[in-house]
Design brief:
Layout: H1 2-80, H2 94-97, E1 119-124, E2 127-132, E3 138-143
Antiparallel strand pairs: 1-2, 2-3
């Protein structure tokens, strides 16, 4: 009986071993595919990381430009406001007249009159100025309420 059990055990182990060897050799093809998938995923992730770095750089540049524009606008208003006398018939300084950031497009919402030909509304701190775009002469000043 011991011989029979030993023979049966040996047979089972040999079958089990053959199955493991067969499974291992079948896994070799999958390993290549897995490795290729990992390489592709790594490549994709590197591409995404590069795109994120580029996007972050572009955002930094955009913020820098926006900051410079904001400083230029503040400078234009500062140059125009304290030293400049704002009165009807006076002239709008060049830096202010050219600053599109001060232009009022939605004049209706501010209850301003419609600008005529060659006229434009500008918003400065607490006032709206209607100026002639050709001569830069102030046609009207309306204080904000």
């Amino acid at each position: 009986m011991a011989k029979r059990s030993f023979a049966l055990l040996t047979l089972m182990l040999s079958l089990l071993g053959a199955g493991l060897v067969q499974a291992d050799s079948a896994g070799d093809g999958n390993d290549d595919k897995d490795e290729e998938r990992l390489r592709q995923k790594h490549h994709d992730l590197e591409g995404q990381a590069k795109a994120q770095r580029v996007q972050a750089q572009q955002m930094r540049e955009l913020k820098k430009i926006q900051h410079q524009e904001k400083l230029a606008e503040k400078k234009a208003v500062a140059e125009a406001s304290p030293a400049h006398v704002w009165k009807r018939g006076g002239k709008v300084p060049d830096t202010v007249a050219r600053d599109d950031g001060l232009r009022v497009e939605n004049w209706q919402q501010h209850k301003l009159s419609e600008p005529g030909a060659n006229q434009r509304w500008l918003q400065l701190k607490n006032a709206f100025v209607l100026m002639n775009t050709e001569s830069q002469v102030i046609d009207e000043i309306v204080l904000e309420q």
